[in-house]
Design goal:
This protein is mainly alpha-helical and about 775 residues long. The protein has 3 domains: about 75-95 and about 320-445 and about 460-550 and about 565-580, no CATH class; about 150-315, no CATH class; about 580-735, no CATH class. Helices cover about 55% and strands about 5% of the residues. The chain contains 27 helices and 7 strands. Strand 1 and strand 2 (about 15-20) form a beta hairpin. This is Integral membrane protein.
């Protein structure tokens, strides 16, 4: 970025910092432009700085292991996808509450899934069967007749350390990242000048310490209480049977009441966990919130002691008591919550002006929440089925002759749906590729006409590659349909699993009376589901290992978190941390302090996700600092992705507010870019901020300026395009009218359009469908409306 091998970090740390060329370390006072007695900008190149935040998203190999937290990240994204409606505050709070409850159900599913593996499959079924335990040597001390640990309750109490340890690990990671990422405060500024159309300008938006602390306590307590409930369910029927003990039954009832009371308090408390963005949330964590994890831990310890109490005649047979009903109810509750989120979103969507509406008729958040629940269920069912196959490799669990009964039937049905879900994904991918191929063929004829200034014949292969790049980039605009189909498949998978489990048979046995092809498909799905899940886990582990060793793989993983972890943790505290709560204050502090100390002006050049960070940072500045800043964005997803999926924060109204808040803003985009796009909509008032589509490649064939074939850049190398230097110089001149640098000449013959400019109206060589029509206005700084 700085185009120099000698660079120095001038502020920040190894995680994220500001860098300069070593020759440009000293700041100089900035007199007014044209001041003959001052140093002024005359004769000087702009002073360049680069902000690097890559260590926040792809710092070490552990980032790749955050892929396992993907359901939590999706639930958190659903919180920020609410429609941009001018509705009463209670309507927005209702939507947020439903998303938080959905996120809480994912934590319960995680704890219950860990219990299904450790308590049910290992401690209850395999360790309770001498044949299974003998095949797994490390379970011999816990098998019947193995000694003190052979009693079922004691095995269960020991196995409860696995889900409890997993929850405590997530609690520790959340607290560790909370202190590292979410402790940066934005620069102080007057509240009165914040734009009412830009929610990201609120002073407390990027300071989430309070909400994450409260959510962390609630989710930790919910997980621990789920483990306690699982321990109590194991001996519930036995203690009340003819071989039971009255005192143990009474103690179990008391612990069940305490567990239910704790869960009821958690559910009631969720309505109090909303974010406070108007001011920085410095409120201390409430005493009740701090006490809930301790209360849940005490109940869990008491439940473990109750389970480990001596019951010499207790034997384990079949599946774990109550597990089947619990998972069936949990899946139905998650489906109902996702539907409720959709209904709340539709209510907000109807109140939203037509030009401000987001993707999927406002149902983007509900679809993503449903995908989070579906992915959580698939991971839980797949892991449980894979562990069951590992413990009993002789035959399918639950089948005649099997050593163990296997996981709850609901999880077996969910695992069997993995191949079907994969088939849906492959079908959607194939449909997208076919659509792109057809569109590319239509565009081929117009490719050569987009370069009217070149005297070279059309090359079919060259035209095919360029048209194919444009067509593939256009698939990004089909993402809403893709998300809709995937969420529908997740809903069908969950309902089908509950309905299939209600038959009381596994998928293969339920299809025994069906025609032979259907029975073969059922058998294949049941066997293939667990293996696919095992392969997915191995793939994630291999990705983490490669990311630890290979910097390029680490950067690839970081791209995923650039998008998924931009937003603060407002629904799930165990989601990967929000890097923007460190990056946005960094940028806003630097902009505010440098303009105030030097009196200088800034052109913020931001590419891709950097444009989102730049916009968020500019919104955090006061009006005096914003007047000294111009924006140059390129490859920006502000409108194409963020405006579509997060309309309340980056919709057309918010981008118009950003246009008014900064003196000038230009946006460069290409038709071959699958991420970036125009920042102005067709109905926006005032001058357009866009310049594009830029020619990509910059030359079709071999020319005097480009004697070698030019590559198709797509989303990269915007700074190498001639339009970048032109627009940067124009923005500098808009901020400082006497800036001496001239716009670089491109050396094109008179009358020919520059690369990226549209041919003049009426030109017979003007393209038809390729490339998409761009802004016909002459390049230059955008003047704010009014």
């Amino acid at each position: 970025m700085l185009q120099d091998v000698r660079t120095t970090r001038v502020t920040g740390d190894a995680t994220a910092g500001i860098h300069r060329r070593t020759d440009d370390l000293e700041d100089r006072a900035w007199p007014e432009a044209g001041d003959p007695d001052g140093a002024g900008p005359a004769g000087r190149e702009p002073l360049r700085e680069a902000y690097c935040w890559s260590q926040l998203t792809s710092g070490n190999g552990t980032r790749a292991l955050w892929l396992l937290l993907l359901p939590f990240m999706l639930a958190n994204l659903a919180h920020w996808m609410r429609p941009a409606a001018a509705a009463p505050a209670r309507a927005h709070r209702r939507y947020d509450l439903l998303v938080r409850l959905t996120a809480l159900s994912l934590t319960v599913l995680l704890a219950a899934g860990a219990c299904a593996v450790s308590l049910d499959l290992v401690a209850w079924q395999c360790a309770g069967s001498s044949a299974c335990a003998s095949g797994t040597g490390w379970l011999d001390p816990f098998a019947p007749g193995g000694g003190w640990w052979a009693q079922p309750g004691r095995r269960l109490a020991l196995a409860a350390l696995v889900p409890a340890g997993l929850l405590l690990l997530l609690w520790w990671l959340s607290r560790r990242t909370w202190s590292a990422y979410e402790s940066a405060s934005p620069p102080p500024r007057p509240r009165a000048d914040a734009g009412e159309d830009a929610l990201l300008s609120l002073p407390g938006f990027w300071y989430g310490r309070g909400i994450v602390a409260r959510l962390r306590s609630a989710h930790t307590a919910a997980g621990l209480l789920t483990v306690a409930a699982a321990l109590l369910a194991a001996g519930w029927d036995r203690d009340r049977g003819p071989d039971g003990s009255g005192p143990l039954a009474a103690a179990g009832l008391l612990l069940a009441v305490l567990t239910g009371a704790g869960l009821a308090v958690l559910l009631a408390q969720q309505s109090q966990h909303g974010r406070t963005e108007e001011v920085m949330d410095e409120r201390p964590e409430p005493a009740l919130s701090r006490a809930l994890p301790r209360y849940a831990a005490a109940v869990l310890v008491a439940a473990a002691v109750h389970a480990a109490w001596s019951r010499p005649e207790w034997e384990t047979v079949g599946r774990y008591p109550g597990a089947q009903a619990f998972f069936a109810v949990l899946l139905l509750v998650q489906g109902a919550l996702a539907v409720a989120v959709g209904l709340a979103a539709l209510g907000l969507h109807r109140r939203t002006p037509r030009g401000e509406r987001g993707a999927l008729a406002g149902l983007g958040g509900a679809c993503v929440a449903l995908m989070a629940c579906g992915l959580g269920g698939v991971l839980t069912g797949g892991v449980a089925q894979r562990v069951a196959d590992w413990l009993d490799p002789t035959s399918a669990p639950g089948e005649p002759g099997a050593l163990i009964a296997g996981p709850p039937l609901v999880l077996s049905w969910v695992a069997s749906g993995i191949p079907l879900l994969l088939a849906v994904l492959l079908g959607l991918a194939a449909a997208g590729l076919v659509t792109a191929r057809r569109r590319g063929r239509r565009l081929e004829s117009g490719v050569r006409a987009a370069y009217p200034g070149e005297d070279c014949p059309a090359e079919p292969e060259r035209s095919r590659r360029i048209a194919g790049a444009v067509a593939l980039a256009g698939l990004t605009d089909e993402a809403p349909a893709l998300i809709g189909w995937i969420s529908g498949a997740c809903l069908a998978l969950g309902l089908g699993a509950v309905a299939g489990a209600a038959t009381g048979d596994s998928p293969s046995r339920a299809a025994e009376g069906a025609p032979a092809p259907l029975a073969a498909v059922a058998d294949a799905c049941q066997g293939l589901g667990s293996w696919l899940m095992g392969a997915a886990v191995l793939l994630l582990m291999a990705t983490g290992r490669r990311a630890y060793r290979d910097a390029s793989a680490r950067r690839t993983t970081g791209i995923l978190w650039d998008v998924g972890t931009f937003w603060p943790r407002a629904a799930h505290p165990f989601a990967p941390p929000c890097y923007a709560e460190r990056a946005v204050p960094d940028l806003s502090w630097r902009m505010a302090t440098w303009t105030r100390v030097t009196g200088g002006r800034l052109v913020v050049s931001a590419h891709s996700q950097g444009s989102v960070l730049a916009a968020a940072a500019v919104w955090q500045l006061d009006a005096e600092a914003r007047e000294r800043i111009a924006l140059l964005t390129h490859g920006s997803p502000l409108a194409r992705l963020y405006g579509r999926w997060f309309p309340a924060f980056f919709g057309p109204a918010a981008l118009r507010a950003l246009h008014r808040d900064v003196p000038c803003w230009r946006n460069l985009w290409r038709a071959t870019d699958p991420i970036g796009g125009p920042a102005s909509g067709p109905g926006d008032e005032g001058p357009c901020v866009d310049r594009g589509p830029l020619a990509d490649p910059v030359a079709y064939g071999r020319t005097d300026r480009h004697p070698l074939p030019e590559p198709i850049c797509g989303h990269s190398d915007y700074a190498a395009d001639p339009a970048f230097a032109e627009e940067r110089t124009a923005l500098l001149r808009a901020l400082v009218p006497d800036w001496p640098l001239a716009v670089p000449r491109q050396g094109l013959p008179e009358g020919r359009p520059r690369p990226g400019e549209n041919p003049p109206p009426g030109d017979p060589a003007a393209p038809g469908e390729f490339p998409p029509p761009g802004d016909p206005a002459a390049p230059g700084p955008a003047v704010p409306a009014g």
